[in-house]
Specification:
mainly alpha
Amino acid sequence: MVNVDFFKDLLQVLKELIERGHFHEEEEEEEAGHVSVQGSEVLRQRLLCISTAFELLSGQGEALNIDLNDFVQHLYSLIPPLSLSPDIESSSQASTGRSIHLANSAELLFRALDKVFAPRTASTSHPPWRIAAFTKRLLTASTHFPPSTSVRTLEFVHALIVKYPQLDALLGSDDRAANGVYRPDVDDPQLANAFASSAWELQLLSTHWDEGVRTAALKITNFARS
């Protein structure tokens, strides 16, 4: 029998780890002789917590009706700093220099995205504002990602557009689908108002120096719903 309290306790621990920023007890003070935790490693550890939360509820916890919106919002907030991380495709190194055999940040990002947008139950659905906010933020991040991660991001966005017709509004050149302004600086997808913007990043990426990125961007630009 599944113990609901057990899963809730585990998720609470994961939330605390995400908010704390790192898994180590040492203070991040080089002057005191402690080894600092690099920013890219902190991002990777937070992604690992988010992925773990969804993994927990994909097994025995699948039957539980536990809200993971906090983890979805944490994932959304990590996309901009990840896009500026020079080590997003690098293997993890612990703060002590000892190798950790875990996925790099890019792999963990897509693992988490797949979990978020592959609902655990058939009745689970995402509100349009969440889908649009993630799509818009991922497109913006694609202009900064290394080519291989950018291509993978564009392929993920293309899959979202195929799955969710509401996203056609971001591709059109007509009036925006929402009033107001898009807020890329807000880390709450519900308040971002993504439908007030457009997928202008595709025009930029269609002239990218990497052929793979150009091809992936043009595939989205030329998409026609049948």
